Predict the 3D structure of the following.
Amino acid sequence: MIDLKLLRDNPEALREALTRRGAPANLDGLLKLEQERRELIASIEQDRQALKQGSDMFAKQKAKTATATAPISLKQLSDGIAQRERQLRDVEAKIDHELALAPNIPHASVPVGTASANQIVRTIGNKPALSFAPKDHLTLSGQRGLIDFERAAKMTGSHFPLFAGAGARLERALINWMLDVHTKEHGYTEISPPVLVNRPSMFSTGQLPKFEEDMYRLKDDDLFLIPTAEVPVTNLHREEILEEAQLPLKYTAYTPCFRREAGSYGKETRGLVRVHQFDKVELVKFTLPETSYDELERLVTDAETILQRLGLHYRVVALATGDLSFAAAKCYDLEAWAPGLNQFLEVSSCSNFEAFQARRANIRYRQAATKKTAYVHTLNGSGVALARTLICLLETHQQADGRIRIPEALRPYLDGQTLL
């Protein structure tokens, strides 16, 4: 949620920032509502003082004359205050609604423009030099019996994968290995959260109210299947005040993730490219505002470690203002190369949300020197998403006979096996 103080103090700067990301908010309407709110508060306070003075005067009269009656003006003041308090609650609800629909302000370093303005920061490794025409992951997984989309569709519907045999074991090995890397080497604390969350949790991280139609929801309980572990893990500290010495806090979590959006992307929905359910290891940080962008670079490096050890060719892309997610102030995408599909696939997004999520979730920290409280900065990134990473792994390490070479880092998790 954007800062209402910024709207009051510098509305033009806020207007310019939101225009840069191609999402101008209803700032004029917000400013009008804010002015109405301040006028109502001033009027209520003025009448409260008048009511108190009148009540004190009547109390003194009552002490002298038992038959004294309260003047009609006191009741009129009381009724007027109650009416304006109702108006104030209504205005504040409208302000909250408008603020909830406004996206985050992009950081000054973010390239301006649509997705075509995204900038490649670095490219790691080279495209694999295969001596044969590469097969895509659909063909490879079908030949090796790794994934069964037809039976998955029979039991659930399209765009849900079913991993079988060596495919299921490879998926589990990847998850365990990634969690070990992030906890043992990168210093993250592992969390195993619920995959159903309540409405306030979804609001805190920015999925609601704007993207409710993209989410799977249990209507009877008003609970949502998580689109990413970012949601429950960020809400670990909702409505809490942390101590400055605790920061940064670093968490990692494996969860299945659920998104309804797959059907709207045409040809990009083939196989594992875009599915309704996928596994992901997530990284979440709570940081001091002054160190959050250094922590973002470290977060990207942590995710890159996974791709490097899997022997994947990839690139790091800085997203432009028009391609940022609703809640992000800055985001890097990690895109790995899939030889069979002949394209880069996004396997991780690493974002700094600054105080946007913390303001919605009321996550603060107490400053050691002043004892004052301020909002933390939250960050998250995939460390990494399994579906597309698995595509790139299968297609990169395929052999001429259709077998898959297992990257060395994974072999201890597969009893030393070298080929699938």
Q: What stands out?
A: Residues 177 and 247 are 26 Å apart (CA to CA). DSSP finds twelve helices and 14 strands in the chain. The chain has a mean pLDDT of 93.
